[in-house]
TrEMBL record:
Family according to the record: Belongs to the ribonuclease III family.
Catalytic activity, reaction form: Endonucleolytic cleavage to 5'-phosphomonoester
GO BP terms: mRNA processing; regulation of gene expression; rRNA processing; tRNA processing
Full protein name: Ribonuclease 3
Record-annotated DRBM domain positions: 160-228
Highest taxon in the source lineage: Bacteria
Species per Swiss-Prot/TrEMBL record: Streptococcus varani
EC number in record: 3.1.26.3
Length: 228
């Protein structure tokens, strides 16, 4: 963590006080599980905290940046900004992938490059920064590494096919739209999910992905393509 501390100081002007907290932010559950006797903490609780402060900072930014946008438009933008894929991209830009503490199996299977792990670590880091330096430090960091790229569109965009499908299907009234996982393959650390989407109990699309969210988006895209 000493090298990470130096990087944070040189790149972002962040001088972490609690190095154990910083280490926890970069500790994946797989690493903690492999070292149970040492009772090492993993980053899931910090991820919860980081997600909350990220939502707050981005919401405040959008509210001030787009004074004439209705709530729905701001929600869509915020959703695209804080997607797993987008956050993983920001984690890579910050070089956080090099400092992840992973279990041997997760490391061997390519976990260091997995969007879910990196996106969670980015949020966990924000949670640790909040506890160590306060909300203003988190905001300053995000305005250094995230906001400038959002303004020029340089982030990992993922089309929200689920919202598009909902808007098309419900144009004439409410329709029950349901996403169901129908298959899971692969080991626990590297699963592939298959999801079907139903409209009023009729199957209208099928999709696969490395996470349930991505599989749902794929199913919605398949349904939209079937609609023509």
């Amino acid at each position: 963590m000493e090298n990470l501390q130096k990087k944070l100081l040189s790149d972002f002007g962040i001088d972490f006080t609690d190095l154990e907290l910083l280490k926890t932010a970069f500790t994946h559950t797989s690493f903690a599980n492999e070292h149970r006797l040492l009772k090492i903490s993993h980053n899931e609780r910090l991820e919860f905290l980081g997600d909350a402060v990220l939502q707050l900072v981005i919401s405040k930014y959008l509210y001030q940046k787009y004074p004439h946008f209705p709530e729905g438009e701001m929600s869509k933008l915020r959703s695209s900004f804080v997607r797993e894929e987008s956050l993983a991209g920001f984690a890579r830009r910050c070089g956080f992938d090099a400092y992840m503490l992973l279990g041997k199996g997760e490391e061997k299977s390519g976990g260091r490059n997995r969007d879910t792990i990196l996106g969670d670590a980015f949020e966990a880091f924000l949670g640790a920064l909040l506890l160590d330096k306060g909300e203003k430090a988190v905001e300053t960091f995000l305005y250094q590494v995230m906001i400038p790229l959002l303004e020029v569109g340089k982030f990992e965009r993922v089309t929200d096919y689920k919202t598009s499908l909902q808007e098309i299907l419900q144009v004439n009234g409410e329709i029950e739209i349901l996403y169901q996982v129908v298959d899971e393959t692969g080991p626990a650390h590297d699963k592939t999910f298959t999801v079907q989407v139903k409209a009023n109990q009729k199957i209208i699309g099928l999709g696969t992905g490395r996470s349930k969210k991505l599989a749902e988006q794929a199913a919605a895209k398949n349904a939209l393509e079937a609609e023509g």
